[in-house]
Amino acid sequence: MDTSLIVSNILNPPILFFFLGMVAVFVKSDLEIPAPFPKLLSLYLLFSIGFKGGVELIKSGLTQEVIFTMLAAVLMACAVPIYTFFILKLKLDIYDAAAIAATYGSISAVTFITAGAFLTELGIDYDGYMVAALALMESPAIIVGLILVNLFTPSQGDRDFSWPEVLQEAFLNSSVFLLVGSLIIGVLTGERGWHTLEPFTQGLFYGILTFFLLDMGLVAARRIKDLQKTGVFLISFAILIPILNAGIGILIAKFIGMPKGDALLFAVLCASASYIAVPAAMRLTVPEANPSLYVSTALAVTFPFNIIVGIPVYLYGIEMLWR
Length: 323
What we know:
This protein is mainly alpha-helical. Helices cover about 80% and strands about 0% of the residues. It has 15 helices and no strands. The longest helix is centred in the last third of the chain and has 32 residues, at about 290-320. The mean pLDDT is about 85.
């Protein structure tokens, strides 16, 4: 493998600022991003990629390739939590296994954005409608995870699920709502809307992504100590399962006939894990699960692994298979 891909990825400003955030925690600097600000940054990123995705979707139209990509996205979002649940159940109880499986069945928008920046840096094109795949993969894993809990909990009749609350959290949480809403507005306004908002949605994008990753570095470093509770099994899981999921995603992308850039984004969606939407839903609906397990593995292991090593490795696999 060409190691320059990994080096090039690490030397991107957003990745370097992610490391800077981690170093700040390790050296006990008082660097801190005020609490409401990271939320605003994440909302901006979701708004920008959703809006751009909508514009690109209306430009490309609803082709056979788009439809197959959307179906593949839903398939993976439902399948990943099922097979990972049975792997996790070998070592964990039903609640922790279901919560972690749901976490890895969903996606990380920031990993997706970082992969897009990586492709742009390399001059590899990708289609904006991949954002629609991202939006479709956010929620199904939450539903699948809760179904697994209901099916495998011995005293399932004693559980007090509120399905309206579950569905609201899955489909109407702020991340999903803003992403899908921006996508629809992008479809409705098309090129005219894009040119109107371009200085805001395009000009500021990488600067805000960089600042957001600085905050992610701070948060990930603070979560590292939680890994002591997870043990070797979960740390290994948090590295090996993304590689497996990315491999399956790459094979599906090849079968559908996606171009290289789209294939990488799809692989990254399959390989990433949610650390915002799913943890929020699991805290609400599966309080028996330990948040330090599903949050720390996704945020302190899988997220940095994907953005530093995973993305260039997945691209290397794609380039080998696409020759």
